[in-house]
Amino acid sequence: MQSSDHIWIQHVIGDDPSECRLTDSRGRRRPLYFTASSASRLLHLATNLTEVTILIKEVDAYQNPFSATSVGDCSPFTPGGYLGRLLGLNPPPLPKLKQLSLHVDVMVESISVSPLRCPNEDLQYALYALSSAPFRTFVQISFCCAQFRESDVGARSYLIAGMEQTLKAAAEAGADTEFEVEPEEGYVDMTIEKGHVEYTFAFFYYNPSICEPAPTEEIVDRRKSPVYV
To answer: How many domains does the chain contain in total?
Structure first.
């Protein structure tokens, strides 16, 4: 019987690198820990992966988008996005892969000083490189703003205009699109689907019912002697 591995590519800026791990979904093998910079190489070696999950938290949305060297130090605006940085121009053959997921959570203090644009790099890569792939691709990006200011109107309008342009371009490329705006709440989101790709992006202000703190990661037991690469 062939094995069915489950890879978790998880990078939390400033946290322990052990969050990047390759695990057997059946629990029959020791976890394989690796650095985010070796994730692309690992994909070419582990051809029996069934699921790839990329979890990105505490991102600096204002960092130089051209400074990234691996999927771990990207921003939502890095050319090609996280997916492009991980898979490259020519995605490796992953015959057993069923699902590729990307979750990016960005928290900013205010958008008044430095407006944010619509993060469409991963969308563009997914639409043109993965929409016809045999596996499902899910991209979920959220921008949560800690402070609401009256002066945010211009910055929100800039972001929404970028979202509308992205939706229009996606529709022209044959994708199904949805757009939701709640002016009173300052909430806006969009969903784009084409083939095996589903992309969602949302902007909202901090609300305890929406921005719940992430659950504490389970403590890694070093006595299990994980393998590092």
So the answer is: 1
